[in-house]
Amino acid sequence: MKDCLHDIKSRLPKLLEQIILSEQIKALEDLRIEYLGKNGTITLLLKSMADMTDEERRNFGKDVNELKVQITEAIDARKDLLVQEELNNRLKSEWVDLSLPAKTYRRGVLHPVSRAIAEISEIFASMGFSIAEGPEIEDDFHNFDALNIPQHHPARQMHDTFYMPNSLLLRTHTSNVQIRHMTDEQPPFRIIVPGRVYRYDYDATHTPMFHQIEGLYIDRNITMANLKWTITEFLKAFFERDHIPVRFRPSYFPFTEPSAEVDIACKRTKNDLIIGEEDSWLEVMGCGMTHPNVLKNVSIDGKNLQGFAFGMGVERLAMLKYGISDLRDFYSSDFRWLSHYGTKPLKIPSMTGGLS
Ligand code: 2NM
Known about the structure:
Layout: H1 2-21, H2 25-36, H3 41-48, H4 54-93, H5 112-126, E1 130-131, E2 137-139, H6 140-143, H7 154-158, E3 163-164, E4 168-170, H8 175-184, E5 189-198, E6 209-219, H9 224-238, E7 246-253, E8 256-268, E9 273-275, E10 280-290, H10 292-297, E11 306-313, H11 314-322, H12 335-341
Parallel strand pairs: 1-5
Antiparallel strand pairs: 2-4, 3-4, 5-6, 6-11, 7-8, 8-9, 8-10, 10-11
The structure holds 3-(3-methoxyphenyl)-5-(trifluoromethyl)-1H-pyrazole.
3-(3-methoxyphenyl)-5-(trifluoromethyl)-1H-pyrazole binds at residues 147, 175, 178-179, 214, 216, 253, 255-256, 286-288, 290, 294, 309-311.
């Protein structure tokens, strides 16, 4: 063992040099195992001291320990350096230039419903409306009673409602949000409310979930003339035509009085539907002056404040504008249909940049 110790001592400078010149963490680890591992040279020397006399052990132990410390320190120091170097190299190779333009995601497209909502919102935003949102799961009060649709009113059967446990329901229109908005905020109100609505109805022209945008304008001195102008301007902007004949046809809604349905002129050819050309009429939305009972239900003084409201089906308007013939395709998740009727996500409609 004395020979062995002597041997290592004489090889120490070479070993230290070998450690300092190591380029791989793995090579350092191999050296550590060779000298300091369970059966390593230094470990075996330390173990051999068990059979020595106290005298022998004193000097031998001191020498072996010194060796152990020097080798350990050299390996640790070199390893720290290599780890640091490796990290620096990774930082150098993995850096990202955040000022570079983003790569666009070429396969994803905006669904035509999202596009129509974006376009319609943009038009009303340009007229000073803000966007309000609210719950799709609602109670009887906000979906029916507050809107002047009492318990046994035929309108409750008219909308085939999805009922849920605990007297909750899926909203049949987005008017619940107007009610909540008028209750929570201070007038004047000028909002549009886009969102999902639900009715128990499924055939070629109805899906159990569809989208609506409703609007509300409450202020002093708001009349049917304001309603007529706002809706006509909206339809011209949406269908991108300077002139569209618009007809307000008397109708009935429980929440408005008077109420009207809005038709626009259109011409049907063999394969096409041309909006704005006089030939026949096409129904596009409903509207009216907010019913005094609705205002009373949200504690608005109907003598001072009044206004108008309107509602439209997003899928229906999208079909007319983008030339989509079958409502059910909206929800069939057919990738070919989506890529044909979808819009590039970076082409977001705006009044200045164009709607389509
Ligand atoms: C429509 C037609 C007419 C409407 C009324 C209200 C409210 F909450 F203010 F009373 N919100 N939306 C309304 C009026 C909706 O959709 C065809």
